[in-house]
Design goal:
InterPro entries: TDE1/TMS. Keywords: Membrane, Signal, Transmembrane, Transmembrane helix. This protein has eleven helices and no strands. The protein is an all-alpha fold.
C-alpha cells in the first residue's frame, strides 16, 4: 500500500511537471499558440455552461431575483455572456499591460511569453468572479458586445480578403494555364453556391402570403453587393480578380442567412421555425468554426508578419 501510494505520488508529480514544462515550452516557441489554446478553453467553457449551468444559475439568488423566473434559454445566454465578459476583462488587462512594448528586451515581454500557469489561473478566477456580477452589468455588456461583434465581422472580412488575395497571388505566380483555369473554376463554383444559397434564402425567408419586405430587402441588397464586387474586381483600373470577389460574395450571403435565421422562431417570415433546433445547432456550429478559424488565422498571420497591418506606403499596404 505504501509503495503504491509513493508510486501514485511520483506519477502525479511527474504529470504536473510535464504540464508545466509543456506550457512553458509552448510559451517560449510561440505565445500565439498558447493564447489560441486559452481562447479554445473559453469556448469550451461557454459551451459546457450553456448546456448544464441553467439549473445552477436559477438557484443563485443574486442572478434569479425576478418575480417571474425567465425561461431556460435566458439563463443559458446569461452563462455565456458572463464567460465572455470574463474573457474581455482578462485580455483587456493583458493588452493594457503590454501596451508600448517595442522589442523583447522590455521586462514585460516575459509576462507575454511566460507565466502560463499563472495566467490560466487568473483567467479562471476572473471568469468565476463574473458569476457574482449583478445582472445589470451583464446586460450593459451584452448591449456593447453587439457593436463589438459587428466590428469583429469587419475584421473577419479583412482577414478573409488577406487570405484570398494570398491564395490568388500564389496561383497566379505559377503562371501556368492549369492554375488560371483552377482560379476560374473555383470562382465559378463560389458564384454558383452564392446564387443557389440566395435562392434558398428567398424560399425560406420570404414565404408567399406574408409581408416579408425587410427580409426581401436584405436578400436583394446582398445580391446587389455580390454583383458590385464582381464589377469592381473586373474594372480595368482595379486590375483585380474574380476569386476574392466570389469568396467575399459567398461570405456575405452566409452572413445574410445567419442574420435572417436568428429571427424569432414564431415569426411568420422565418420559414425555418419547423426545424429551429436543427438550424440553431447548425448555425452555432458553423459560426463557431468561422470564429475559431478567424482568431487562429489572425493570431498566426498578424503575429508572424506585417502584411495585414502594413503601413500605407508599403508594397502591400
Amino acid at each position: 500500500m505504501w509503495a503504491a501510494s509513493c508510486l501514485a505520488s511520483c506519477c502525479a508529480a511527474c504529470a504536473c511537471e510535464a504540464c508545466r514544462t509543456a506550457v512553458g515550452s509552448i510559451g517560449r516557441r510561440s505565445a500565439r499558440i498558447a493564447y489560441c489554446g486559452l481562447f479554445a478553453l473559453s469556448l469550451f467553457a461557454s459551451w459546457a455552461l450553456r448546456e448544464v449551468a441553467a439549473p445552477l444559475l436559477q438557484s443563485i439568488p443574486w442572478i434569479n431575483h425576478f418575480h417571474k423566473t425567465p425561461d431556460r434559454e435566458w439563463f443559458e445566454t446569461d452563462a455565456v455572456l458572463r464567460v465572455s465578459l470574463g474573457n474581455f476583462l482578462f485580455f483587456t488587462i493583458l493588452a493594457v499591460i503590454m501596451a508600448g512594448i517595442k522589442d523583447q528586451k522590455d521586462p514585460r515581454d516575459k509576462i507575454h511569453h511566460g507565466g502560463w500557469m499563472a495566467k490560466i489561473f487568473c483567467w479562471a478566477v476572473i471568469v468565476f468572479l463574473m458569476f457574482f456580477v449583478p445582472n445589470g452589468v451583464v446586460s450593459f455588456y451584452e448591449s456593447i458586445s453587439k457593436f463589438g461583434s459587428g466590428l469583429f465581422l469587419l475584421v473577419q472580412v479583412v482577414l478573409l480578403l488577406d487570405f484570398v488575395h494570398g491564395w490568388n497571388e500564389n496561383w497566379v505566380a505559377k503562371d501556368e494555364q492549369f492554375w488560371y483555369m483552377a482560379l476560374l473554376v473555383v470562382s465559378v463554383v463560389c458564384y454558383i453556391a452564392t446564387f443557389s444559397f440566395s435562392g434558398l434564402l428567398f424560399h425560406w425567408f420570404t414565404p408567399s402570403g406574408h409581408d416579408c419586405g425587410l427580409n426581401l430587402f436584405f436578400i436583394v441588397f446582398t445580391l446587389i453587393l455580390v454583383f458590385a464586387f464582381a464589377i469592381i474586381a473586373l474594372h480595368p483600373k482595379i486590375n483585380g480578380s474574380l476569386l476574392p470577389a466570389s469568396v467575399i460574395g459567398l461570405y456575405c450571403t452566409y452572413l445574410c442567412y445567419s442574420g435572417l435565421s436568428s429571427e424569432p422562431r414564431d415569426y411568420e417570415c422565418n420559414g425555418l421555425h419547423n426545424h429551429s433546433k436543427a438550424v440553431s445547432t447548425g448555425s452555432l456550429t458553423l459560426g463557431l468554426a468561422t470564429t475559431i478559424l478567424s482568431v487562429v488565422y489572425s493570431a498566426v498571420r498578424a503575429g508572424s508578419s506585417a502584411t495585414v497591418l502594413s503601413p500605407p506606403d508599403s508594397p502591400r499596404g
